[in-house]
Amino acid sequence: MVSSGLVLGIGGLVGIVAGPLVGSISDRSRSTRGRRRPWALVGVWVAAIFLVLTGLSEGPWLVGASWVGVSVGISVASAAFTALIADQLPSSQRGAASSAVGSSQAAGIVLGVGLVVLLGLGVFSGYLLLAAIIAVVGTLSALLLPDPPATASDLPPRSVTRPRLGSLRDRDFAWMLGGRLVANVGNALGTALFLFFLLHGLGQPTAEAQDNLLLLIVVYTVFVVIASVVTGILSDRTGKRRGLTVAATFVQAASGVAIVIVPTFEMTMVAAALMGLGYGSFSTVGLAFATDLLPDEQDHGRDLGIVNVTAALGQLIGPVLGAAFVALVGGFWLVFLMAAVLSVIGGLMTALARQPAPVPAPH
């Protein structure tokens, strides 16, 4: 268990590095096939191939090593696809595009697990099916989405040396990024330990806890999809992305408070719905808000790769903090309380980033 967790953690860290790195490379790509499309295809197929290898692997180290490849592939593809939003769309359409990204990720979890369960597939067959879905859908998306070759104005001059993380010096972008990271840690605290809370916090038998966990995941995911679609479109129509993003963190915080006050399974179901509403809105509108705050058009890929890192880093930090909080007080109330506190802090940090004026389409 320890070795598996260690390798999976390494895989997450490698993915965190890969996203901004490939985003930066794609920013400077002079390929006639587009800047983002080649990297999107590479990421999709790397993830698909390593998913198959994960299904074939035995033992924690081989599984973990294969999962490193999956993490890298997903990070590379995410950086490329996300950059297309900033490259091709005006501010008035980025909320809807971000909702497509957020809702498809959430729906993909339920669809993948549902297909595996309904078809009664084994481990390898399940991974093979998931890899096939990723390869087909990802390839079609990369080929069909517009990605014209970069013009001279899109690329930085070769003779100019640019700061590697210059975007972090931008006040508004830095506050948004910090708030996004803290709120993502709050989300991970509120969701990562659900199974252990059912087992040890509510005292449910193992089989019942596993069934209830699946139910919680479905409820959470359904509300993520609903919130992503509704708030993404709403943010396009109103232009008030900062306000919607901050409000979403308070809805997410309400989830943790609910469980602290009434620690029952029924309230946990309500909390899962609230967490889905809050996080679905936060991840979607927050991504659109991030694209509005990008400091430099010539570094879209790199900077959005950094934005994507906040979600991955939050998922790595959250479970570790959660385990520490459980050990500290011998229960789960502090985990959910801190999930609420960090969600609010993330929202307040986001509020310090100023809402930019709408800008026309870059192309």
UniProtKB/TrEMBL annotation:
<feature type="transmembrane region" description="Helical">
    <location>
        <begin position="6"/>
        <end position="26"/>
    </location>
</feature>
<feature type="transmembrane region" description="Helical">
    <location>
        <begin position="98"/>
        <end position="121"/>
    </location>
</feature>
<keyword id="KW-0812">Transmembrane</keyword>
<feature type="transmembrane region" description="Helical">
    <location>
        <begin position="306"/>
        <end position="326"/>
    </location>
</feature>
<feature type="transmembrane region" description="Helical">
    <location>
        <begin position="181"/>
        <end position="201"/>
    </location>
</feature>
<keyword id="KW-1133">Transmembrane helix</keyword>
<dbReference type="InterPro" id="IPR011701">
    <property type="entry name" value="MFS"/>
</dbReference>
<feature type="transmembrane region" description="Helical">
    <location>
        <begin position="332"/>
        <end position="353"/>
    </location>
</feature>
<feature type="domain" description="Major facilitator superfamily (MFS) profile">
    <location>
        <begin position="1"/>
        <end position="358"/>
    </location>
</feature>
<feature type="transmembrane region" description="Helical">
    <location>
        <begin position="246"/>
        <end position="265"/>
    </location>
</feature>
<dbReference type="InterPro" id="IPR020846">
    <property type="entry name" value="MFS_dom"/>
</dbReference>
<feature type="transmembrane region" description="Helical">
    <location>
        <begin position="213"/>
        <end position="234"/>
    </location>
</feature>
<feature type="transmembrane region" description="Helical">
    <location>
        <begin position="127"/>
        <end position="145"/>
    </location>
</feature>
<keyword id="KW-0472">Membrane</keyword>
<dbReference type="InterPro" id="IPR036259">
    <property type="entry name" value="MFS_trans_sf"/>
</dbReference>
<feature type="transmembrane region" description="Helical">
    <location>
        <begin position="62"/>
        <end position="86"/>
    </location>
</feature>
<protein>
    <submittedName>
        <fullName>MFS transporter</fullName>
    </submittedName>
</protein>
<feature type="transmembrane region" description="Helical">
    <location>
        <begin position="271"/>
        <end position="294"/>
    </location>
</feature>
<feature type="transmembrane region" description="Helical">
    <location>
        <begin position="38"/>
        <end position="56"/>
    </location>
</feature>
<dbReference type="Pfam" id="PF07690">
    <property type="entry name" value="MFS_1"/>
</dbReference>
